[in-house]
What we know:
single chain; six-stranded antiparallel β-sheet; 6 strands
Amino acid sequence: MIFAIDPVGALSHVSPEWTKLTGQPIAAALNEGWLSCLHDHDRPIVRRVLVQAVETASEFCIQFRLRSTDGGARWIGAGGVPSFGPPGRTFLGYLGSMTELSLDGAETPAAFGNIGRFVPPPPHPMTTASDHLETIADHLLIANALIENDGAKAALPGLREALYEVGRALAKKVEAERRPN
């Protein structure tokens, strides 16, 4: 599931899978509305990491519980990659991905977050993007994580440019969807 966060840390886009998973309409999730779907104990951790990430324009990763439509809690792995644009590499916000985590019974998960490399967790059917543009964004975010691990850093600037362009395309799509017909 793809999301976008603006340069001040407000959610500006989330995939339709959000509503399927949480029951919360996308319009209600925007800005900080999505935080109301987080488990009460996990919310401060997620906020702290997002504030730190925005202040430093750094990649981030978080793990937290999300209340789902069935009333239960689902463990989510999420993170984002900063996007920079002209002029002068202005920080534009984040393009990120979140997926439901498949935990085995032996694990005792805990909410956490950190600033640094975002390595997306394996996809889960409940949070797989249903839109082609969002699928592209998801694959680019995965490629971003793999490039640094496999020593192909020379490809990173081109990949980050592709992430920027996909983010712009998503922003245009969201704008068009919000315009009254």
